[in-house]
Amino acid sequence: MTIRHRSMTTPRLVLGLLFALALPAAAQDRPDIKLAVDNLWETMDPVIGISTSGARVHDNLFDTLIMRNRWEDPDGATLVPWLATEWTRKTPMIWEIKLREGVKFHDGHVMDAEDVAFSMSAERLWGPEPSAPRGSRYAANIVRVEATGPLTVEVELDIADPTFPNRLATPLGFVLPKHYYEEVGTDAFGQKPIGTGPYKLVSFDPSTELVAEAFDDYWYGPVPAASLTFRIVPEFSTQFAGLVAGEFDIITSIPADQIEQVENAPGVTVLTKSIENYPMFAFNMLDDDETIPDNPLTDVNLRKAMVAAVDREGIVTALWGDATYVPAPFNFPEYGPFYDADRKAAITYDPDRAKELLAASDYDGEQLEWHITRGFYPNYEVAAEFMVEQWRDVGIDVKLTIVDNFSLAYERPFHMLNMSMSSDFSGDPWRPLWLDWGPDSSRVTASHKTWVPSDKFLELGEAFVQAQEFDERKQAYLDLVAEWEDITPGMYLWRNVVSYGMRDDLDWDPGNSAVTIFDKNFLKTE
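Above: the chain's sequence. Below: its structure in C-alpha cell form.
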C-alpha cells in the first residue's frame, strides 16, 4: 500500500504573495520588533523547551518538516510541505520522507538526511537515555530512523499508523544540525541553538532576553523583520507602560481585566485570539495516594457531581464574553473531520442532578484541596472562585491553594490539580486524547500523577491507535471519549484566550496558535 503526498503549491503561493506585498521596499526599512514577555524557557532546544514561553521563539529559529496549513485553514487541520517536500507510506510500518534541496542552517551548513535522521533519532528522542526525553511522547512507536540517501529518510514504526505525518508538524519535526549539536552537546546547544528558521540567534540570557536577527539565506525567501527581541518583563503594568512609550512593539498575555485600558491607549491596538490550548483540572483519583487516606475522589459519583454542579457556560460568558466557548471533551475544531460542532458533553450543568449524584456517593463533607499555579492561565483563579461557590451550593467543600509555580502545585497532598492541554496535531485527536491521558502520559507516570487508566480505556485506546480507515478511527475515537467521560478524570473549562497589545501601525495576526511566529509581521502600508 502506498500513500503519497507531493508538494502543495497553493498555500506556498499564498504565503509568497504575503511576503511580496507586505515587505518594505528596502531591506533597511524592515522593522526591529521588540516584545515584552512574562518569561523565557531556560533552554531554546525546541524539544527540551516545549512550553508556551518556548514556542514563542522556536518557530522563528527552527523549521519543521511539515507545517499546518493555517494560511488557507485557520484551524490548521491540513498539512503543507515545508522542509520535507514529499512523504510516502511505503509499507504499513515504513514512511519515506524526501527533503528540500539547498536548505541552509544558520552557520551555512546545508541540511541533509543525516540531520533529519539525527533530529528524530533514538539518541536524541526515544532511546533508553535520550538527550531530549520530553520528545519521547511525539516519537512513540518509532523503532528506526535512517538516512537512505542524501535527501531521503526512512522512519519505521512498530504499528501501522496512517496519521504519522501529523507528528512531523509538531516538535518531532524540528530539524537540528547534527554536526553542531554533537560538537557542543545538549546544554550548550540549548543556549546557542542553530536552526534553519527565518531568524538566527544573536544572544540569549534566559533571565533577561533573547535577540534574533533576520537570516537572509532563509530557504523560503525574504524575512520580514530585521530582528526580534523577546525581553522578560514580569509585571503587566511595566509591559503596558513600555508599549505606550514605544519601548515595545508587542506585549503578550494581557490580563482580562486590563484589556479595556490597553484598548483605550493611544497608538495601540488589542488582538484577542482563541488558541489551541484548553485549561482544565484533573481529579486525583488514586486510591493508593498515601498523602490522602480514604481519598473521596475515588468515587465516580462525586466526580460527576462536581462536573454537573459547575455552570461553565455562565462562567465563561461572564469572564470572556463571546471570545471563547466551552468545548465538549476532545471535540476541537483543529481535529478537522473528527470535529462535530453539534456534539455535547455527556455531563452538563444540572444542579439537581449534581445533588442526586452526590447523594449516591460516599462523600461525607471532607474538604477537597485544589492546587492552582498563580497567574499561569488567564482568568483561571477567578473561575475557580465561582466554581467553589457552586460546589458549596450543592454541599461540596473545596479549598483553593494558589502557589507561585508548578513545582509547588505538584507537591502532594492535593485532590485537584490545574493543568491544560495543547492540541498541536492537525486533523487528528491522537495527542490530546491518547498521549495526554494514555499509559505513558504524565497524568499516569509523573510524580504529580492523578489516575490509572481503566482496562477498558487501554483496550479502546489500542483500538484507536491501530485503526487504519477514517470511519474506523473516528468510531474508536468516540468510544474512547465516551469511556473518558464515564470515568470523569477531569474537567475541561474553555478554549484558552490570549490577548496581545501591539502598536497600531503593525499588521500582524498570530492566528489561533499559541506560537508567536513572525512570518507575517509587517508594517502597514497606506
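The chain has two domains: 3-231+498-523, 277-495.
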